[in-house]
Specification:
This protein is an alpha/beta fold and 304 residues long. It has helices at residues 25-44, 61-77, 92-104, 123-128, 141-149, 157-168, 188-197, 212-217, 262-266, 280-303, and strands at residues 7-11, 15-19, 21-22, 51-57, 80-86, 110-113, 177-181, 201-205, 221-224, 242-245, 249-250, 256-257, 271-272. The structure holds NADPH dihydro-nicotinamide-adenine-dinucleotide phosphate.
């Protein structure tokens, strides 16, 4: 289907292709929030108000801003938020006890622990105390195991956002050649598993990959999540490919940029996300979606 405002290129192998569409993450995130708002209203009709508990330990300024933004985003869609601001010197045992208590609180459907935690607190110990049904960040080993096993469960927010952005392009993932660059537990691996769940053919690249350029060049979908500015070169992109850039890097002059060389990649890609304004806005939107999913599932379990 011809796309409005598209530029066309002719590729010797692939023929005439539309290129250069930028995916606006803010617009897609706004659509997700609108869906969440409707689901919240449907729950309200059943007497359920979704609730998200956010735990912030210490006073890291960036974490404070993130938690504040999440609280505002909740209020905007009708999700009740419960803030827990705790001192950096909080003993780990007390933090674990709080997480367990929130796990039993029927008004709380989602729990998020803002990371990183100040040392010596161990993120793994705190995350393991989460009730998997309220693990809206999808970080609990049970959530990860469910994703690995292809069982229903809460999925991590940024990877969910990546899939949602890919879906806006209309590309059929079944059988598609996809490359994920980066194999972290937070982003790369779950993105790869979500693509696999959708029947894509997935290649997972990392710092020891022998021929990154060659792997990327074959891909109809590229997801970059390395934290290295411009690592994925524009000339590697297969004409017409979908390129999702998760990376957030700060240039010397202070501006943000992604892991993909944006302009040269845009000249070849069918669709590409910018940084900022691509994946970034999706993460909070998917957190809201996960919280409503958790509330819907809790309501269904109570009704059963
Ligand atoms: P990690 O540092 O945990 O992982 C980076 C991955 O990139 C590793 O698997 C590493 O490989 C791989 N890598 C590093 N160098 C190369 C290379 N030269 N070639 C191929 N692969 C390489 O980062 P995260 O996954 O946590 O985050 C990645 C980026 O995404 C960061 O910029 C982060 O800020 C951003 N991010 C953005 C979010 C958003 O909301 N937009 C949310 C989360 C993250 P190896 O395993 O071999 O070391």
């Amino acid at each position: 289907m011809p796309l409005r405002g598209s530029v066309y290129i002719r590729d010797t192998r692939l023929g005439k292709l539309a290129v250069g569409q930028t995916i606006d993450g803010k617009v897609v995130a706004a659509a997700v929030r609108a869906e969440v708002r409707e689901r919240v209203m449907r729950l309200a009709a059943r007497g359920v108000v979704p609730g998200l508990a956010a735990i912030l330990v210490g006073d890291d300024p960036a974490s404070r801003v993130y938690v504040g933004n999440k609280g505002k985003a909740c209020a905007d869609v009708g999700i009740r938020s419960f803030g827990h601001r705790l001192p950096a010197a909080m003993p780990e045992g007390e933090l674990v006890a709080l997480v367990r208590r929130l796990g039993r609180d029927p008004e709380v459907h989602g729990i998020l622990v803002q990371l990183p935690l100040p040392p010596p607190l161990r993120a793994a110990a705190v995350i393991e105390a989460l009730t998997p049904e309220k693990d809206v960040d999808g970080l609990h080993p049970v959530s990860q195991g469910r994703l690995l096993a292809g069982q229903p469960g809460l999925r991590p927010c940024t990877p969910l956002g990546v899939l949602r952005l890919i879906d806006t392009t209309g590309i059929a993932l079944v059988g598609a050649r996809t490359v994920v660059v980066g194999r972290s537990v937070l982003v790369g691996k779950p993105v790869a598993l979500l693509l696999l769940e959708r029947h894509a053919t997935v290649t997972l690249c990392h710092s020891r990959t022998a021929d990154l350029a060659g792997e990327v060049a074959r891909a109809e979908v590229v997801v970059a999540a390395t934290g290295h500015a411009g690592l994925v070169r524009g000339e590697w992109i297969r004409p017409g490919a979908v390129v999702i850039d998760v990376g957030i890097n700060r240039r010397a002059e202070g501006k943000l940029c992604g892991d993909v060389e944006f302009e040269p990649a845009r000249e070849r890609a069918g669709f590409i996300t910018p940084v900022p304004g691509g994946v970034g806005p999706m993460t909070v939107a998917m957190l809201l979606a996960n919280t409503v999913t958790a509330a819907e599932q809790a309501a269904a379990a109570r009704a059963a």
